[in-house]
Design a protein that fits this description.
This protein is mainly α. The chain has a domain of 57 residues. The chain contains 2 helices and 2 strands. α1 packs antiparallel against α2. It is elongated.
């Protein structure tokens, strides 16, 4: 059995990653509002290289935490208990 302290540690990592994701999305929205050509390229890079990868890793981390707690979640309606 996994010690609860490790589950708590993973949850804290997930919380920190959610903060990174939120800040990145905020920056993307600010760049979109400025509507300059170069800003659009930066916004796209942030989305493709930061927001989306962080979001995918958060999904995976949530699956791991749920598995360790003994309850397999679904992502986008798909059973991920076998991941």
């Amino acid at each position: 059995m996994i010690a609860p302290k490790w589950i708590l540690e993973l949850q804290q990592i997930a919380r920190a990653l959610r903060g990174v994701y939120s800040n990145c999305v905020t920056a993307q929205l600010a760049l979109r509002a400025q509507n300059a050509d170069q800003d659009r390229e930066i916004m796209s890079t942030l989305r493709m290289q930061v927001s989306e990868p962080v979001s995918r890793q958060l999904d995976r981390l949530n699956v791991v935490v749920s598995e360790l707690k003994g309850c397999a979640p679904e992502i986008d309606g798909e059973d991920v208990s076998g991941i």
